[in-house]
Specification:
Layout lengths: L2 E2 L6 E2 L2 E5 L6 E5 H5 L4 E2 L5 E2 L1
Antiparallel strand pairs: 1-2, 3-4, 5-6
């Protein structure tokens, strides 16, 4: 399965998927963005590391 990273927008097979702690929307993070701790922003405005 391939998904688009919520942070960088790249398609990836190596990802983590989790719900936003505020609104529950599913977020996808690629391995690279997780490793370098790129910030992500949910549509609700929540920001994470």
């Amino acid at each position: 399965m391939v998904k688009r990273c919520s942070t960088c927008g790249k398609l990836t097979k190596d990802f983590a998927e989790f719900p936003c702690p505020t609104c529950g929307e599913k977020l996808v993070r690629c391995k690279h963005c997780r490793e370098i701790r790129n910030k992500y922003v949910c549509a609700c405005g929540f920001e994470g590391p």
